[in-house]
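Hi support team,

I'm filing this because I wasn't sure whether my run with adenosine-5'-triphosphate finished correctly. The job status page said complete, but I'd like someone to confirm that the output block is well-formed before I use it downstream. Pasting the exact inputs I used:
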Amino acid sequence: MSAVLQETGVPPATARRTGEVILDLKKISLSFGGVKALTDISFDVREHEIRAIIGPNGAGKSSMLNVINGVYHPQQGEIVYRGVPRRGMNTYDAARSGIARTFQNIALFKGMTVLDNIMTGRNLKMKSNFLLQALYWGPAQREEMAHRREVEKVIDFLEIQHIRKTPVGRLPYGLQKRVELGRALAAQPEILLLDEPMAGMNVEEKQDMCRFILDVNDQFGTTIVLIEHDMGVVMDISDRVVVLDYGRKIADGTPDEVRSSQDVINAYLGVAH
Amino acid sequence: MYYREAGQFKTSYAADSRIFTIRQDRTGMLLLCLVAFVLVPLWASPYTFSAILIPFLIFSLAALGLNILTGYAGQLSLGSAAFMAVGAFASYNFVLRIPGIPVLLAFVLGGLCAALVGIAFGLPSLRIRGFYLAAATLATQFFVVWCMTKIPWLTNYSSSGVITAQQIVIFGYQFITPASKYLLTLAIVSAMALLAKNMVRSNVGRSWMAVRDMDVAAEVIGIRLMRTKLLAFAVSSFYCGVAGALYAYAYLGTVEPEAYNLDLSFRILFMIIIGGVGSILGSFLGAAFIVLLPILLNVIAHALSLPTSVASNLELMVFGALIIFFLIVEPHGLARLWQIAKEKLRLWPFPH
Amino acid sequence: MTNQTKESPYLSVNNIEVIYDHVILVLKGVSLQVPRGGIVALMGGNGAGKSTTLKAISTLLRGERGDVTKGSVMFDGQRIDHLTPNALVQRGLSQVMEGRHCFAHLTIEENLLTGAYTRRLSRRGLQDALDKVYHYFPRLRERRGSQAGYTSGGEQQMCAIGRSLMAQPSMILLDEPSMGLAPQIVEEIFEIVRDLNSKENVSFLLAEQNTTVALRYADFGYILENGRVVMEGEAAALASNEDVKEFYLGVSGAGRKSFRDMKFYRRRKRWLA
Amino acid sequence: MNFFFEVLIGGLLSGVMYALVALGFVLIYKASGVFNFAQGAMVFFAALTCVSIVNRFGLSLWFAVPITMAVMVLLGLAIERVVLRPLVNQPEITLFMATIGLAFFIEGLAQMLWGAQVQRLDLGIEDVPMESLLNTFNIVVSRFDVMAACICGVLVAGLAFFFSKTKIGRALRAVADDHQAALAVGIPLQHIWAIVWSVAGFVALVAGMLWGARNGVQFSLTFIALKALPVLILGGFTSVPGAIVGGLIIGASEKLAEVYIGPMVGGGIEGWFPYVLALLFLLVRPEGLFGERIIRRI
Amino acid sequence: QEQYVPLLSYRVGPYAAGGTGFYGGVIDYFNLVNMNGGINGVKLTWEECETEYNASRGVECYERLKTRNGGASLVEPLSTGIAYGILDRVGADKIPMTTLGYGRSDAANGKVFPYVFPLITSYWNQAAAMVKYLGEKSGGMDKLKGKKIVHLYHDSAYGKEPLPVLEEQAKQYGFELVKIPIAPPGNDQQSQWLQIRQANPDHVILWGFGVMNAVAIKTAQRNGFPREKILGVWWAGSEEDTTPAGDAAKGYTTMTFNTPGNYPVLDEIRNKVYAGGKGNLEDKTRIGSVYHMRGVTAAILSVEAIRNAQAKYGKGKTMTGEQVRWGLENLNVDAARQKALGAFDMFPPVKTSCEDHEGSGAVKVQQWDGKKWVAVSKDWVVGDKALTRKLLEESSAKYAAEKNIKPACLGAAS
Ligand SMILES: Nc1ncnc2c1ncn2[C@@H]1O[C@H](COP(=O)(O)OP(=O)(O)OP(=O)(O)O)[C@@H](O)[C@H]1O
Ligand SMILES: Nc1ncnc2c1ncn2[C@@H]1O[C@H](COP(=O)(O)OP(=O)(O)OP(=O)(O)O)[C@@H](O)[C@H]1O
Ligand SMILES: [Mg+2]
Ligand SMILES: [Mg+2]
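And here is everything the job wrote out:
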């Protein structure tokens, strides 16, 4: 249906190097009062892959991410992360064990500058205690500088040098999304959860964003779980796609398989692509 | 010379992370220190010291403490005077009961006691937020002052509950003259302000601000809410505690628990809001505003020889109106106003 | 369209300049017109000033410490830059703000009802208006009793659009209506736009990043960069412009390129050069 | 046992008086998400204006009350125009601070207009024990308190009706959530605020008259706000019924605590006990008993 | 020639009513003295500064005003908090401070507090006098045995101040002392009065301040507690405390250190000062009210001290603070002098010395008749001064030890 997709003649993403299953979600169910956000969902994520989650609005995609990094605790099911099964994550452990994410409704720290926002991403890697930091001297300062160097790499990578010292509240939406990605990247995560990173961007900006995501995936081998409504993007860059509808999984497979599934067409795409 | 950063290149991250990145600012700060430490003691009158500068510095310190908690960590509190009281009464007892203890150490210990109380009363902040928390911190205010009046041991069994701060002696030097007390206060306050500045520009500070701006997101990043909030309470109370001790030792001399009443808590809150929530400089500007403006209005009213009963009420009204006026002009406080002025100056003579 | 522009435009923005916070100059002289019954798209990259333009029109800027320092805005033949937003809604000009802005503590239905605040409706009339919105967005009917704060991003977006329809405006300023919506819904929303436009003669000014769709439904388009209008024209003309194609539609000479193949070094737009 | 009931009833009735003041806060919090620091000053201002009209111009209370009401409406309009309108969409804390400035201003204005003297207000309701109860059960219940409780009940019912049955009620909640969006959907923020501040002025007048009749019209009326705060946090900032229920709970438990726990710890615990109690409640329900749940979602 | 007095007044805030009355009285009397030609030709000048009853602002005012116009000759802050705040400073600045009926009771010891003068009476003497009065009322001190007295007090340093005296006397006379504190500000006292009703005491000592007083009187009425059994302190005994309580206050008695009534000096103030348009009170009917009369009393004693100092150091000269201090320490305003001033029996005769900066310790009991205060007894009541002397010696010695002060009399200024 979408004009863009109709014009495409692009070959599907070729199978790429992906590794072991790093995250395995088993029969996850989550409900809020009467609302069943997720029902009995199972899927896995392999190392180094780009895994997309798609589905209509309110299908439970964001809730899924929230379950993965411990913001929500599923009523049923099990999360196996790096071979360790658990009932649910908690946010701190998730962050510690290398899960970072961005949010659908931007969750940046509005009162801080871009640099500071990204620096918070390195919080878990900072060792010196607050007394040393208060003195801002010796090891504390050295540590601060070392992390600053890392963060500058992220800033360079995302090409946001010019807004380094701007308070994020003043930035336009698209740049805020980029900063949020930067904050997640600064943590050097193993799994990166991205919730609609390209919403509200025009094509050019989406192209940039895709490039960042692909580069992260290529260069650092970061596993990526991605929610996105732009089918062009999803079909082009993801390795495997899960489709949710009304809290249920209706399809799971390569972009091509998903694209041709009748269920998916009915529930989400509207028209065959 | 224009106020401008052009031509000032930073060649290291350390240079870029300085407190004042622009050379003119650094020179300005240096000059300010020079004035505060050298020129003021030479020129100021005892009145300026003991009625304006010393209370201004002490209030700045308390405001700084509250600003750490409210401005940086986002936990609105109406109990700062209580922490000041703890600091003062604890220091008093340390000096009283441990003969020969250095006064500065007593201040630090007093601050630590305040920090402990702060942690205890900070616990609810893990669940309670915003104005609910603010109202709940009033519990601290009333409870602590109540304890001070109820536990005679704390006031050394003085029949009226009033304590008389001991003489400040450091290395045998007695701080008696207003100028010497001023210098001592100034030294303590500047050192603590520097520490505070360092904290807020390094990881602790960023964690506080993250919790303030969006606690859920902060958690996801791996910031531990409990630790961060309680640390903010502790540090903030420490600052307030030391300020409280100075209030007793370097300013009033003799105090009753009532001196640390709700009114004082509110005044400190006013300071940070007027000065700028989440700004070290703002704490100082706010304290100056709240301390100086009534004095100024009082002087003006009497210079105009208004009838006294009218003058006092008019003062109150003008004070209220000015608060509103400043908020309308700049909701982020005097510190932000200052910043805007600097930004304009940097562009000057171009408008944008 | 051309004959419509001859008569005085329904909405016209004349050379406005906007400054935030007394120092940040954002719009540097923007002029645009929306004819009665027209659909006009406002496009441009992140931070170009689209949202600012819309807020300047609906006088919502004041709440964000922004100021229109030059120029004027005319609506239906009268200057409106000194009116309150509420007066504008009463005159039929309504805005859907970027980033949803639903009333989090109100239920979806209550949210919709507040949208009809300016209208004096009987209970019946209110119910009819509600039904109309529910007809457009069936998903909202399902979630009508949930607090808006707990609904998904897309549901909130629908709620925000539905809410402004409740006021039965004659002109709607839509800020990024497609953001965060499933492709199917995006298409539906634009159908609704077309529907209202043709059946009820509602005029639209849309700020939109999804240029492909926007140009498909709009009659006329403006492209904003850096606070200036850099290009304007009939939608069809814009859609066939080479630059627009490359930067906003993501198709260049050789047809659509896969997001995967975006090169690091590629042509960047330089409108101002 | 008799004594227990006496304390309990006394506490409940005091609680109603607290609730009366808390109501004013609730109104404004509902309408703008702002904690109105000036509420106490408004209570003082209203009472002082009313009583001064009676004393200076020799008018009867029946005239003075409507005149004062008109003054309070004017005050409400002025506050909306001068203070609130320029501060639309600003952070809560800014608005909170503005109300602090307002409190100073109103206090100064009241005393400048009417002087600092303590004045007496006689509503014609005698503050004596109800004979019948005293004789039959030997329980002391003040006639005045019962009367005040009735007035308060009527007021609460009226306000609750006003907020649940009119569209203004819904609009208010919308405004409290998001000023900007409220403006965008065409809610006339200015009218709403003017109305709400006027109603809050009316509530302040009622509270000021009742408290003034009890304690004398004097500056310390501004402090009764401190008694209203724990009521407010317990009941929830946004709930009219919450104010009354919170008032009853706080009133009763505070009196019982003072009488039964107080002597063990040296007494005078009424100052902090309600706050600690409210705090404990909050730990269980962080938004108060009837407050709107705080939505925290990402 | 001018003699300058800074006035740390408060005319806004919770205690404004008292502040306007008191400082109104002071200024009225100063004006009167000036109209009559000053003190041996030396005119009084003054400057006011609004303290809002706030210690910190009070200190600022003191510091600001103390060096004006050639230096302050004495201060009277009418606030315990401010008095504490400037306690050390007045000594260092050599400016005497008077604290009529409040502040540190032990400051009456001039050897330790050479610059502080709690003139006329202090809390301890008041408490002792209260017990004395209650004893006499019961028909002799021995009748107090077995009686029950409630001390209902403002839960602060102020309310706790008399406890040592009361406890001591309870032991001595064998009455039971029930202490009931009220959390400030005391807007609501239902539970306390229920407790009192339950305890059914013979007397209630009401040690209140501000709004607490009116509320106490009203709550007593509403709980059916007879107001005749309540005895207030002097900060609970002004028109501001009884007016709001209305009829409930009729018959209520309190301590005071002025005899209520009219005096020639007040008439003179009306006829000269107010007729000349220089009156300080907005409301003329407040002339002679409790706070106003206290202000006039404070002003009379100050003026007498200056006059006294002039007698020693040179008539018609401006006196320094040190010299005024001497004047205060050697004050003798006896009945004859009071008569001459048109203030006979308005306050007890005052005779100070280095050991006794209080100079009297006598108080009166007054009763509210529904419209005005009337004296209950003709005579001044004096409590057990030996006891209070003992307490103040102990307490001031402790202070001296804390502060490293060697107690000594200062004597005449150089
Ligand atoms: N905290 C919560 N409380 C109540 N209901 C919730 C909560 N979080 C999510 N829901 C509900 O669960 C369902 C799934 O929401 P979710 O945000 O996961 O959708 P989504 O797939 O991300 O949709 P979208 O594409 O619109 O963002 C929605 O109907 C939403 O209303
Ligand atoms: N409240 C504000 N204060 C300061 N600057 C602001 C504010 N709001 C927006 N700006 C600035 O104004 C410029 C234009 O912003 P605007 O939101 O209008 O862009 P936009 O075209 O809508 O972008 P997007 O597509 O990302 O929504 C941006 O550079 C932004 O940084
Ligand atoms: Mg989502
Ligand atoms: Mg935008």
